[in-house]
Design goal:
With 243 residues, the protein is of the alpha+beta class. The chain is built from eight helices and nine strands. Helix 1 packs across helix 2, helix 2 crosses helix 3 and helix 4 crosses helix 8. It starts with a strand and ends in an 8-residue tail after the last strand.
Length: 243
């Protein structure tokens, strides 16, 4: 059955040509048909409004510029959103740490590796200033070349056992025992710790204003297209509900 939009047919060759622009959609054909229907409705509206340009894209652009007026979100709206969504404006807990890694090994090698790691742990606990030098000497991790430094990271970026040990240790301290993970035995020095803190309104105000303005524009566009569809006579295809 032919697809007719207010008396204008959407031809099969048009659909086939448009499908190439929607290869990632669940159904490229459906996405192409929906795009062509909406495009046709917009072109019809532009013609009815007396908009005449060199290309269809220019006509649609002019129509939407004339019909959809987006008011920039003001500071009060930004503040209200900020206050209502505190979880969206919190920085995660962070740490800066270094480690010395020893391989797990198997059998006797495992026992020897653990014994060696425990010996080095005792040495760094007695003399923390030696940590970087001992990491360079003993660590099997590439970070050993930088004194064991892993830089800054947050929760969720390290394996669970390593993360748990780091965030249970105060800044400036060395974990009291070896930490075993799938990678081996770790001696960890926590250099810095920062708890999750709230991002100030001033830090996010401009990005929040852009976000809310964009959301308002999308809503106006959705409502505008929904009205075009509701007022149109479309045969041969049922568009998804635009509630």
């Amino acid at each position: 059955m032919a697809i007719i939009v207010n008396g204008v047919e959407i031809k099969e060759d048009m659909i086939a040509s448009e499908q190439g622009n929607h290869t990632e959609a669940p159904s490229a054909r459906d996405a192409a048909i929906q795009e062509l229907i909406l495009r046709e409705l917009l072109l019809q509206k532009a013609t009815a409004a007396g908009i005449h340009t060199e290309t269809a894209e220019e006509a649609i652009g002019t129509l939407l510029e004339n019909e959809i007026k987006v008011t920039e979100a003001d500071e009060a709206a930004c503040q209200a959103f900020y206050d209502s969504n505190p979880e969206s404006f919190t920085r995660g807990e962070m740490a800066v740490a270094s480690h010395i890694l020893f391989p797990l090994g198997e059998g006797l090698a495992a026992s020897l590796a653990k014994s060696k790691a425990e010996g080095v742990l005792a040495e760094v606990q007695a003399n923390p200033a030696r940590f970087a030098a001992l990491a360079s000497e003993h660590s099997t991790c590439p970070s050993g070349k930088q004194g064991g430094s892993l830089g800054q990271f947050g929760r969720g970026q390290m394996v669970p056992e390593f993360e748990a040990a780091v965030f249970a240790t105060e800044a400036g301290q060395i974990t009291p025992a070896l930490v075993e993970t799938q990678f081996g035995y770790h001696i960890i020095q926590v250099n810095e710790r920062s708890s999750g803190d709230k991002v100030s309104f001033e830090e996010v105000k401009e990005r929040l204003q852009a976000f809310l303005t964009d959301m308002a524009g999308r809503k106006l566009m959705h409502d505008y297209l929904a009205k075009l569809v509701a007022d149109a006579k479309i045969e041969g295809y049922t568009l998804p509900a635009m509630a």
